[in-house]
Amino acid sequence: MKINKILSIFLAFCLLFGALQSVALADNTLIIRENVIFDLQSYGILQGKDDGDLALNDNVTRAEFCHVLVKLNGMDAHSVASDKQYFADVPQSHAYFDEIGFVASRGLINGYPDGNFYPDAYITYDQVNKIIIDFLGYKYMADMRGGYPNGYRVTAANLGLSDNLDLSFEISINRAELCKYINNALDVPLVELVGIGEDGIYEVKDDVTILTKYLKLKRISGFVEANAFYTLTDQEAIDGCIVIDGINYKINDVTFNDYIGKLVKAIVKIDDSKKQEEILLINEDESSEIILTHNNYINYQNLSLTYDLDDGKQKNVKIAPDVKLIYNGTEKVFDGNYINNLSNGIIRLISKSANNVYDIIIVSEYTSFVVDRKNEYRQIVYDPYGTTSLDFSKNIIYNITDSTGKVVSYEDITIGTVLTFF
Question: What is the pTM of this model?
């Protein structure tokens, strides 16, 4: 008999720049909710201060933007190290000497006619826009639309680079807005020059992006159906993996197991060896979820489910024709009787899209009994009738909690304790 493992939900946000640093969430709630900070930290693009503060309201300097460009190339300061000094005001002692040298050698950012780079000067939205569009390969498109700056502004809008940004092109860009801009750029298809002509022949590579080509990462989304301890379907996880939509992915953090039964977005390291790909970070996806109990009047009929609201009114929701039903940890052929005949338990309705048609139904039907006897040696408890028992000595994963949710042990179970399980 399976005993459900009660899982806590905890999401760790890390800065992956050598040493791990924690992030204070309170001041950055809006950005994190948009998943922008989450993604850029995992890619190693966004760097905090020494104390872990992301300083999202600070303007970005030219030197700091060089660091971002190095990261977008899938490199770091060590891999681009050089002794060559390109600018009079950027000596080898400068914190971003290597990054500025790399960017200058690639022609991504130029210096000024006086031989200086002015690394501490703030970079503007227009300047970021031109540099990134050129990097993506769309310079030809921007030039066709009038060049710098207006042609680049139009191109940015067409590519979605300026989506969700709230500032003027002429002013300095701050770290929060740069995060959103770079996040938009990661999935824009790259352009390659494939032929020579009057204006060149360019090809958009739909499956090639900064994310896949330079960072060797990809985004995935789906339903977590199994982890190392438990499965909601017949699909079991390989050791050290979780299962998302039928595929095993390695995990580098045991807290990722806690997303079982959730729709998630994840960042996955591309593995050309075709072994299990590794999830670097994971986050709960935006989805519609309804949780009902047996105390709600629930009736299912013809792909429609009706239930009671707290104010006594009823609500009707649509069920997808190909709905996935998971009943007490096992995937079943859908049958409305699993819903209509629920006597004691919980029903979770999950919609994968914004159309509020529910694609996944998870039914957990519980059994309850009063403990009448305990076999301390064998760690078995029995009900008064001898018809139901729980054997805690078996090799199973379980958590025991009291009515307040506090975790307790087997020793805390006494005669008269009410146990609920499935």
Answer: 0.64
In terms of Cα–Cα distance, which of 213, 163, 136, 179 is closest to 46? 179
Residue with tokens 């066709």: 144
Exposure on the CB side of residue 381, measured as CA atoms within 13 A: 20
Q: What amino acid is encoded at 129 in this protein?
A: N
- Backbone φ/ψ region at 135: left (φ over 0), alpha (ψ -120 to 50), beta: alpha
First to last CA, the chain: 8
Taking Cα atoms as reference points, which of 331, 309, 330, 334 lies closest to residue 320?
Answer: 334
Angle formed at CA 415 by CA 411 and CA 418, multiple of 5 degrees: 90
Taking the C-alpha atoms of residue 143 and residue 125, their distance in angstroms, rounded to an integer, is 18
pLDDT, position 354: 63
pLDDT beneath 50: ranges in the chain = 1-34
**Which pLDDT value is given to residue 41?**
59
Cis preceding linkage at 149, omega within 30? yes
DSSP-derived secondary structure letter, 255 = G
Please provide the DSSP assignment of 266-319 as one string. EEEE--TT-S--EEEEEEEPP-EEEEEETTS-EEEETTEEEEE-TTS-EEEEEE
CA 239 to chain centre: 22
